[in-house]
Design a protein that fits this description.
Number of strands: 10
Helix content: 25-40%
Radius of gyration: 23 Å
Largest sheet: 5 strands, antiparallel
Structural class: alpha+beta
Strand content: 25-35%
Strand order of the largest sheet: 2-3-6-4-5
Oligomer: single chain
Length: 206
Amino acid sequence: MAEKYPIPAGELVFEEEIKASRFITVLSHCSSEIDLKSVLTDVKSRYPGASHYCWAYIAAAPDNSVAIGSSDDGEPSGSAGRPMLATLQGSGLGEVCAVVVRYYGGTKLGVGGLVRAYTSGIKKALPDLPTQLRELKYPSRLCCDYGQLADIEYLLGKHGGDILERDFGGKVTLQLQLPKANLADLNRDLATLTQGQIVLKFDEFE
């Protein structure tokens, strides 16, 4: 599984006319099926009355084969959704969805023509889609004295850790998440700070 991968940082719309039909491709971020439904609802409201709203999405890392989906939305089977998904999978992007809106212009394209038409906009739009890097982070927890908290918060920030929750009891317990690749460097800094008293481990490996 990829630990780092690019994801859309915004939306991109690309429009073209193919044999009198109008094709509007909308690329955007999508981290769940719920996100996909929200994007689809928004696209339908912006482009009402279209003949078809075909879509495909990858809601996780680019190589994920489970959190994916596609729809031909009434076009011949295999002529839209699956080719769109294959194009997204070949892009190297994660957490991405594509909705292609078609306003039928009266000329039938055939299955081969539809495959080309529904993937054309995606291929042309992808190079201009703004992206950012997603780095997977894993859960962990850490207990420290109150006097150590400020320094530990600094070290977590330095190594890409996110503090999700602070519990102030006899000691401070931090619920956090951290990129796997940063664990060794963080532990070296923690060992120096705490004379080896604090060693961070990921929850899933305990």
